[in-house]
Write a structure and sequence with these properties.
The complex is a heterodimer of chains A (292) and B (224). Chain A is an alpha/beta fold. Chain A contains 10 helices and 14 strands. The longest helix of chain A has 25 residues. Chain A starts with a helix and ends with a helix. With 224 residues, chain B is of the alpha+beta class. Chain B has 9 helices and 9 strands. The longest helix of chain B is centred in the middle third of the chain and has 19 residues. Classes of the chains: A alpha/beta (292), B alpha+beta (224). Chain A: Keywords: DNA-binding, Transcription, Transcription regulation.
C-alpha cells in the first residue's frame, strides 16, 4: 500500500463527503477509492469513517488521523519543492482574501510583480469586507485589519496604521473644521456601520468618546470613501484607506492633537495545516512591498 | 485663561514646592508614580463611555435633598461631573469653571450636577468655597462612581502618603475603603444614553467646560 496516496484519498473523501466525488477529483474509479480507504483502516486497525444515511463522517480516530494526514501531505509537498531547489519556483493556485478597498488601493497593484516572479503560480483574490471563514472558503492566506480574536488562526502583524477624522477641503469650507472632538456633534458624519457612531479619542492619558450625528450610514468601506469624496461629511478612516487623496491634499485630517486607536494589518493563515510555501512566499513578498 | 492653563499654572507652583502647600519633591514623585500606574492600568478605557446607557442614581445634595437622575433627564440633557473632593485643588478649580459655564447649559435646558464620594458637610464646603449654584451630590461609598467604572482603590504607598498629609479620606467620605473616582465628565441624553464622555486618570488634566456645549446643544435639538 502507498501510504501517502492512501492518506490523500482519505483526506479527499472526508473533505468532499463522498467516495464518488473523491474518485472524480483523484481521477480514479470509485471502487479504487473504497478499496484504498478499507486497506488503510485494515492497516491501522481502526475505523476511520462512519457510513450512515446522512453520508460519511469521520470517527474520533478518523478526525485525529485527518489532521495529521493533512500535515504530512503538506510536508511532503514542501519537501518536493525544496528538493527541486529554489529555481523550480512555486506552482498551482494561491487563494488570497482581503478587504475590498484595501485590496484595490494597495494589494492588487502589487500582484503583477508577484505573478511575474512566479510564472507557474495562479492567484485567486477573494474580496470581502467581512471576516469570512478561511477554512470553509479554502483561503490560503488572508490580509485582515483590526483585532485578532479568532484563536483558530495564525496571524502575523505586517503593519500598524494611524486612524484619523478625515474630510474634504470643500466640506471643511462649508461646515468648518472641528477644534475639539465635542464639536463633532455639530458636524455631519459618514458612519461605517461596522464601526458605529461612537468615536473614541485619546490625548495623553485622557479618554474621550462622543456620539456623532450622521444621516448617512454605509456598510462597506468603499461606500464610506465615496461619500467622503462627495463632500458628504467627516469619517473615521485609516491612512491606508485614503492614501492617494492624503498625498494630493484632496482629503485632510482634522483634530491632529487627538489620536484614535491604531489599526493593525495582519497576514492570517488558517491553522491545523502548515503554512504552504506559496502562502509564506506571498506574505514575505507583501510585507516587503507594503513596508518598502 | 483656559481651565487647563489655570490648572497647569497651579501644578507648576505646587510641584515647585511653593507655598501654601510647600510639598517636598519626594511627595510629588509618589503622586506621579500613582498617576502613571493608574493610567497604565487601563481603568479609564473600561469606564462607561458614549454609547453606553448611563447608570441611574438617586443621591443627596449638600442640603440633604434627594436628587434623582431620572427626574433630571425628564427636564433636559444632563451634564455630570465626577470629582474627588474639596481637599483636591484641581477639583475646586474645575468646579469654578463649571459654574462659569452654567448659564450656557441653562440656555439649552440642561441640568448640571457634580458627584463626589464625600459626605454632605464636605459637599457644603465645596459649594461655599467655590460659590456654586448647582447641585453637589454625595455618592455614599462611591457606588455611583463604581457603576460608571470610575472607582479605584489607592495603592498602599499612596494611602501612607495621604495619612502623613492628613488627607483623611475615610473621614471625608465616611468610607474606610480608600477609594476615589477618576475625574470624569458626561453628557447624557434624555433617553439615558451617554452622548459624550471624558475620563482623566491624570487628575491634573480636565476638559474645558465649554467643550461640552456643542454636545448639550445637539442633545437639546434632538428633544425639540
Amino acid at each position: 500500500m502507498d501510504r501517502l496516496a492512501a492518506m490523500e484519498t482519505f483526506v479527499r473523501v472526508v473533505e468532499t463527503g463522498s467516495f464518488s466525488e473523491a474518485a472524480r477529483q483523484l481521477r480514479v474509479g470509485q471502487p479504487a477509492v473504497s478499496k484504498s480507504v478499507a486497506q488503510l483502516e485494515e492497516f491501522l486497525g481502526v475505523k476511520l469513517l462512519t457510513r450512515s444515511t446522512r453520508g460519511l463522517t469521520p470517527t474520533e480516530a478518523g478526525l485525529g488521523y485527518l489532521e495529521r494526514a493533512r500535515r504530512a501531505l503538506e510536508e511532503a509537498a514542501e519537501a518536493e519543492i525544496a528538493a527541486r531547489g529554489a529555481g523550480a519556483g512555486l506552482k498551482g493556485r494561491l487563494r488570497i482574501c482581503a478587504a475590498v478597498t484595501f485590496a484595490r488601493i494597495h494589494l492588487i497593484p502589487m500582484l503583477p510583480k508577484f505573478l511575474a516572479q512566479n510564472p507557474e503560480l495562479d492567484l485567486e483574490v477573494v474580496l470581502d469586507d467581512r471576516q469570512i471563514d478561511l477554512v470553509q472558503e479554502g483561503i490560503d492566506v488572508a490580509l485582515r485589519m483590526g483585532k485578532m480574536t479568532d484563536s483558530m488562526l495564525t496571524a502575523r502583524r505586517i503593519a500598524r496604521c494611524k486612524r484619523m477624522v478625515l474630510g474634504t477641503p470643500a466640506y471643511f469650507k462649508r461646515a468648518g473644521t472641528p477644534s475639539t472632538p465635542s464639536e463633532l456633534s455639530r458636524h455631519q458624519a459618514v458612519v461605517y456601520l461596522r464601526e458605529g457612531s461612537v468615536w473614541s479619542f485619546q490625548r495623553e492619558s485622557t479618554e474621550l468618546a462622543v456620539t456623532v450625528r450622521s444621516r448617512l450610514r454605509v456598510t462597506a468601506a468603499e461606500g464610506v470613501r465615496a461619500a467622503v469624496l462627495a463632500d458628504a461629511g467627516l469619517a473615521i478612516a485609516s491612512e491606508w484607506m485614503f492614501s492617494p487623496e492624503l498625498k494630493t491634499g484632496s482629503v485632510r485630517a482634522a483634530l491632529p492633537e487627538w489620536s484614535l486607536p491604531a489599526l493593525d494589518l495582519w497576514a492570517v493563515l488558517p491553522t491545523g495545516r502548515a503554512a504552504t510555501a506559496k502562502a509564506r512566499a506571498f506574505v514575505n513578498f507583501f510585507e516587503r512591498s507594503f513596508n518598502g | 485663561m483656559s481651565l487647563q492653563a489655570k490648572l497647569d499654572a497651579f501644578k507648576a507652583d505646587f510641584e515647585a514646592g511653593k507655598p501654601p502647600y510647600s510639598v517636598p519633591r519626594s511627595v510629588i514623585d509618589v503622586m506621579h508614580r500613582a498617576t502613571e500606574e493608574l493610567v497604565e492600568s487601563g481603568a479609564a478605557q473600561r469606564s462607561k463611555k458614549a454609547g453606553d446607557v448611563a447608570p441611574s442614581f438617586s443621591l443627596s445634595d449638600a442640603e440633604g435633598n434627594i436628587v434623582n437622575s431620572a427626574d433630571l433627564l425628564k427636564r433636559g440633557p444632563l451634564v455630570l461631573s465626577f470629582y474627588r473632593g474639596v481637599w483636591c485643588p484641581y477639583c475646586n478649580i474645575e468646579l469654578q469653571a463649571l459654574e462659569a459655564a452654567k448659564p450656557e447649559f441653562d440656555k439649552y435646558g440642561a441640568s448640571l450636577v457634580a458627584i463626589s464620594p464625600q459626605t454632605a458637610p464636605n459637599s457644603r464646603k465645596s459649594v461655599r468655597q467655590n460659590e456654586l449654584s448647582f447641585a453637589i451630590l454625595s455618592d455614599v461609598k462611591g457606588k455611583v462612581g463604581e457603576a460608571f467604572g470610575l472607582r479605584f482603590r489607592l495603592p498602599d504607598y499612596l494611602i501612607e502618603l495621604y495619612k502623613q498629609l492628613k488627607n483623611d479620606l475615610p473621614a471625608f467620605n465616611d468610607d474606610p475603603s480608600w477609594t476615589l473616582p477618576m475625574p470624569a465628565r458626561y453628557v447624557i441624553g434624555q433617553d439615558g444614553v451617554i452622548l459624550y464622555s471624558e475620563v482623566n486618570p491624570d487628575y491634573t488634566r480636565r476638559p474645558e467646560s465649554e467643550d461640552m456645549i456643542p454636545v448639550v446643544q445637539q442633545a437639546a435639538a434632538v428633544r425639540a
